[in-house]
Each structure stands twice: as C-alpha cells, then as structure tokens.
Amino acid sequence: MRLRLTPRDTTYFDMLATLAQHNVTGASLLAELLGASRQEREGIVRRLNEAEHVADDATHSIMRRLNQTFVTPFDRDDIYGLASALDDCMDAMEEAGDLIVLYKVDELPLRVSEQVQVLQRCAELTAEAMPRLRSMDQLSDYWVEINRLENQGDKLHRELIAQLFDDTTDPVLLIKLKEIVDMLEEGADAFERVANMVETIALKES
User: Fold this and answer.
1) Cβ neighbours, 10 Å, residue 19
2) Cβ-proximal residues to 64 (8 Å cutoff; 6+ apart), any chain
3) By three-state DSSP, how is residue 29 classified?
4) Averaged pLDDT score across all residues of the chain
C-alpha cells in the first residue's frame, strides 16, 4: 500500500457497502417476484421500486459527499464510477421486475430463475467485497468469481434465447419474454462492470 500523508474521509467505504447491500435486497425481491402469482406481483414490484429509490438516494449521497470532500480514500472518479455502476445493477433488476408486471406475463421460462440466482449470488459477493476496499486485501477472489458467474449467465442467456425461439409461437409474447431475459442479462453484466472497477482500483492502490 502507498504511504499517505493526508487524512482521508473513510465514510465512503460504509456508503459503498450500504449501496451494495441494497442490491442484495433488490435481487431477493426479484427472486420473490418469480415465485409469486400474477396478483401478488404488483405488490412485490412496488417494494422493488421502493428499494431502487432508496438505492438512488444512497448513490446521490455519495455524489454529494464527493463534491464536499477534498481528500478521498482513492481517486474520486473511481468512487463516482463505482457508485454509478452499483446503481446500474439495481436499475437493471428493477426494470426486469417492472417488465414482468407491465407485460402481464403469466408464466416465465423455468430457467429464468437460474438467471435470478446468478444475480443473487453476484449481489451477495459484491456486498461482501465492498468493506474490503478499506484494506484492498483479498479482493481478487471476488472479481474472479463474478467473472465466472457472468460467463455462466452469458451461456444461460444464449440457451434461454434459443429456447424462446424454439418454444414460443406467439410473436408478441416472444418479444416480451426476450426483453425480460435480456434485461436480466444486463443485470449480470452490470455486476461484472462493478467487479472490473474494483479490480482496477485495487491495482491502482497496490
């Protein structure tokens, strides 16, 4: 670690950890949504929307603090980028949940639950990793595993798209289901972007 001669505002570590924890909540609500009836889904999506608003507030708090702080624990552009990337994860999950309700989809392909399981695991690992930014220790296992999960998600996404084209005869339903599956894949990509940023920050600080 580099020797630092100036004090740092370490509140950012707690704020980033809190923001990452909101993604755990979002992924859990998305999983709950899949197992719910069509009537129950609207209430769950409202909770998911609320969780996204809370995550937005947490992101804005980080941005405001960046504008008020002279010395940051690491590059302020990296803090900004990391907070934005974490917020993108929640945005993708919320949008997927919204689409399920707005499109009035009665039944989703069974393997969509596997996509959501990937998101849940990514969210959990990311929430566990954020506090370790304080020391920059033991983070490599995190970004390696996220990369593996994203590759798993990519393969699953391709298989699901192929299945949709094979099994869905209604073209309108096909479009709806493909948008949902694509948005879930965007969520996995967003978590990988977070992990890539963490790797970049760790390398800069080493």
Assistant:
1) 26
2) none
3) helix
4) 92
Alpha carbon distance 156, 139 (integer Å): 26
Euclidean distance between CA atoms 166 and 161, whole angstroms: 9
Which pLDDT tens digit goes with each residue over 66-87?
888 777 888 889 999 999 999 9
Low-confidence ranges of the chain (pLDDT < 50): 1-7
What is the residue type of 155? K
The answer, as to whether pTM is greater than 0.85, is yes
Q: What is the DSSP letter of 206?
A: -
Asked whether the CA dihedral 126, 129, 133, 138 is positive or negative, the reply is negative
Burial of 172 (0-12, 13-18, 19+ CB in 10 A): exposed
Shortest CA distance to 157 belongs to which of 137, 180, 176? 180
Q: What is the longest distance spanned by two Cα atoms in the chain?
A: 66
